[in-house]
Design brief:
With 234 residues, the chain is mostly helical. Helix content is 50%, strand content 12%. The protein has a 3-stranded antiparallel sheet with strand order 1-3-2. Strands 4-5 form a two-stranded antiparallel ribbon. A two-stranded antiparallel sheet has the order 6-7. Strand 2 and strand 3 form a beta hairpin. Helix 2 crosses helix 3 and helix 8 packs across helix 9. It is elongated and about 75 Å long. The protein starts with 11 loop residues before the first helix and ends with a helix. About 3% of the residues have low confidence.
Amino acid sequence: MSRNYDKSGIDRSETLRSHFNKLKICKINELSKVIGATERTVFRTLKEIDYLSSFNHAGKYYTLMSVPVFNAQGLWFHRNVGFSKYGTLRATIVVLIQEAPSGCTHEDLQAVLQLRVHDTLRDLVHSKLIGREQVNAVYVYVSPHAKVAKTQVEKRKEMSPIVSITTVEQPPDLSHVVEILLIVIHNQKVSVRQIRNILDTKDIVVSEREVEEVLDRYDLKKKLKRFRSRHLKK
């Protein structure tokens, strides 16, 4: 492999290694100043020394594979910047779900990854890289392989309390109420079904009956109908 030297004859790769050993993580513009070269040259140099980009902060931070001490999940955090030995956020989520004996909920993943991953999960399900099952009113993300997914769901059911259809109905969770009210505030033309569909994209499992209960409690049903009626007349 040909060496990457600057005008002074100094090996840029070694300069970057030394810099990462001191600061652990850096942005491209910072590295460009360190070696006195364009960002394109920085990327070329990074490829020579086996680097990782962060799975959060839009991948703006970089480190070397030799720097992190990964935890049991294959993750390493420096301050609030996360890196994964699996590379991208998508790849990391797939591995975490595949290896989880009982699958993962969004809350499980958020706790481990320290960020919300609703959109990524939805894309992975759509791409059939992971599966999704509803277990006791909670979405559980599982392996795309049927046999593995079945085992994960069974184990998740053992963890979760069994909800009987004869159980006395409880009022909607306060966090769900807040989500429903926020949807109505931002979109007064929305219907009960549309509210439920929006909640579904956030992995919040709420029935249409529960949505109606919240609307009734806050006397919003009539207001929504009047708004839609005025809108249609225009």
